[in-house]
């Protein structure tokens, strides 16, 4: 329920709106009461009412307060209805597009919540546009938001975009991805039988100090066994040799000298399944 003060404000807004309609050729004067409605709505966590006031101020080109815009976007992302999430992204992109705007911690928080909110309601494109706008302003998006974005891209079969974003984030060293960040992307690339690309992506992570374990490698090995064909045996053999060497290098396997002579590099059409079952069961 609205307070009497807020009702009075709304009545004044309506009276001024009606009086301005007498002179249709004159642009309506900027009403401080609408801004007050916006501020009060944000304070009361009333996202729908705040958005309505924002729309009114936007029509009058009278809202130039970055902090207020950030508060509004954060409110809508955290407390708004699911269908309002894209509005939060729109508001933040409007803010970030201003050349003179300088982002701060509040901007980062608003961006993270808004990206997450958009992904929750499957508004991937809105999340991507905001992610790109934040990147251009050097705003760091935290690792959980990055993980969610990559997983959503993979689920939408936009694997190449996920690979590009993952490589860029890993190389920048601002956010430190883990093997869990890589896993859904690696599996998606593996499902496309792009074994060389899987190796390249793992190597990219290793070069940038991402540690991989059997938690990452085992699903890839399982997929390789499912995908075995006579045509792919050589490519899969090279892939499995790489996995074996990576596990050994990282200390997960300890070979004796005798075992080294029977390295997993010896693959042929008939022994492929048996060799891999023996190595990884």
Automatic annotation (TrEMBL):
Region (Disordered): 251-281
UniProt keywords, alphabetically: Repeat
Bias type Acidic residues, positions: 255-281
Gene3D superfamilies named in the record: Tetratricopeptide repeat domain
SUPFAM superfamilies with a match to the protein in the record: ARM repeat (SSF48371)
PANTHER family per record: PENTATRICOPEPTIDE REPEAT-CONTAINING PROTEIN, TETRATRICOPEPTIDE REPEAT (TPR)-LIKE SUPERFAMILY PROTEIN-RELATED
The protein, known as: Uncharacterized protein
Taxonomic classification: Eukaryota, Sar, Stramenopiles, Oomycota, Peronosporomycetes
């Amino acid at each position: 329920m609205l307070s009497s003060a807020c009702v009075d404000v709304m009545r004044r807004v309506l009276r001024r709106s009606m009086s301005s309609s007498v002179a249709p050729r004159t642009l309506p004067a900027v009403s401080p009461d609408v801004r007050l409605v916006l501020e009060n709505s944000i304070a009361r966590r009333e996202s729908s009412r705040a958005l309505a006031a924002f729309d009114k101020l936007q029509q009058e080109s009278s809202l130039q307060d970055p902090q207020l815009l950030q508060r509004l976007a954060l409110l809508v992302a955290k407390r708004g209805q699911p269908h309002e999430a894209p509005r939060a992204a729109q508001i933040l992109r409007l803010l970030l597009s201003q050349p003179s705007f300088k982002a701060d911690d509040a901007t980062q928080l608003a961006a993270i919540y808004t990206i997450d909110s958009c992904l929750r309601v499957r508004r991937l494109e809105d999340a991507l546009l905001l992610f790109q706008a934040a990147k251009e302003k050097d705003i760091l998006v935290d690792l959980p938001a990055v993980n969610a974005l990559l997983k959503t891209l993979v689920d939408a079969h936009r694997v190449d975009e996920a690979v590009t974003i993952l490589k860029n984030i890993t190389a920048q060293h601002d956010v430190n991805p883990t093997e869990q960040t890589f896993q859904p992307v690696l599996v998606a690339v593996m499902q496309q039988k792009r074994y060389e690309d899987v190796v390249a992506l793992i190597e990219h992570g290793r070069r940038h100090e991402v540690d991989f374990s059997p938690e990452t490698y085992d699903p890839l090995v399982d997929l390789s066994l499912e995908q075995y064909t006579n045509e792919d045996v050589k490519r899969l053999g090279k892939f499995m040799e790489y996995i074996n060497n990576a596990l050994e290098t990282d200390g997960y396997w300890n070979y004796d000298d005798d075992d080294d002579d029977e390295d997993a590099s010896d693959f042929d059409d008939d022994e492929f399944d048996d060799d891999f079952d023996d190595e990884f069961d």
